[in-house]
Amino acid sequence: MSASPPRRRSLLKGAAIAAGALSAPMIAKGQTGPISMRWQSTWPSKDIFHEYALDFAKRVNDMTGGDLKIEVLPAGSVVPAFGLLEAVSKGTLDGGHGVLGYHYGKQNALALWNSGPAFGMDANMLLSWHKYGGGKELLAKLYASIGGNVESFLYGPMATQPLGWFKKPITKAADFKGLKFRTNGLAIDLFTAMGAAVNALPGGEIVPAMDRGLLDAAEFNNATSDRILGFPDVSKICMLQSYHQSSETFEIMFNKTKYDALPAKMKSIIAGAVEASSADMSWKAIDRYSKDYIELQTKDKVKFYKTPDAVLQDQLTLWSEILEKKSAENPLFKEIVASQFAFAERAVKWDQDTIVSRRMAASHFFGPKKAAPKKA
Question: For residue range 168-219, what is the model confidence (pLDDT) as tens digits?
Fold first, then answer.
């Protein structure tokens, strides 16, 4: 799937040179007045993901008092969703909002932040590894290896994603054999190994492809996005729980030349806005996704099924094989996997030993014999 390393380097090396020519004059020394930036997300305008991108831009615009004004366009306004990295690196766009897995074709190790096994970590743990366990430095090293002229910030922990939308329930891994299936990032390798014929499409193109029969099944992300994008119009069966994308996060990306020219105070505000937006996004997601999960069942008549444990175990077995193969081919991939593994080994053990099960509490309070608080 990926281009050879020398070609990747030459592709983005030119982008970095172009960025110097295109972006440097945008913020002149001693410039007065607001700094304007034109961004693009990798999401359709109606998706909640684009809403998250707008939320971040508004927070920065408000926190800087209008000294920095970020405008965010939806996917396809300037470049296709999968072209965001190159466009930002060149300076065609000043920044963008997306996920690292969409850059899989430039360097497959980038997808370890969104569609790798994560060794049992959830997305918040992955962000902890990124900030405190060496992930941020490894990402900068990875971008430098392909000449990426970008300043990257990760935020927004996502919930475990469904296995996907299907014509009939998945009962065993063999059900994927020959299935025309949509996914992205390293999950391409996982579902290919499971026997699927994989097509990596951006979010806005998935449902039309299913409607035309170009796809048999697909996964995207969450109850709200999937509902808004129209998945219930082309499928009434959704399988919950999977290890293909159990710990994904968003990426906020600046053209590095333009970012480096910003005043130090503005950079500090951006860093604070990233973390504030991360918290707000995770809270908004719980509220919106849980509402749409109910709506999908009651209004859209979708039936949800839990992915069988045997399928989940098969995924883990295949992940081990994929990691071994990719690590042998790509030294940076191997280095990132080792770092994630070491962090996860202690973090996941701590989590499992410490956090009480929500399932027991849910059964007690919301189960057949509800123990809900008495009304006043």
Answer: 999 999 999 999 999 999 999 999 999 999 999 999 999 999 999 999 999 9
- Ordered structural domains, the chain, with CATH: 5-21+30-159+247-289 (3.40.190.170)
CA triple 112-114-120, angle to 5 deg: 80
- Asked if 167 and 95 touch (Cβ cutoff 8 Å), the reply is no
Residue type, 111: A
Task: Measure CA of the first residue to CA of the last residue in the chain; give whole Å.
Answer: 61
- Collect all residues with Cβ–Cβ distance below 8 Å to 351 and sequence separation of at least 6: 125
What is the four-CA torsion angle of 219, 222, 225, 230, rounded to 10 degrees? 50
State the average pLDDT over residues 125-149. 97
303: left (phi over 0), alpha (psi -120 to 50) or beta: beta
Q: What is the DSSP string of 183-234?
A: --TTHHHHHHHTT-EEE---HHHHHHHHHTTS-SEE--S-HHHHHHHTHHHH
**Around 90, how many Cα atoms within 13 Å sit in the side-chain half-sphere?**
13
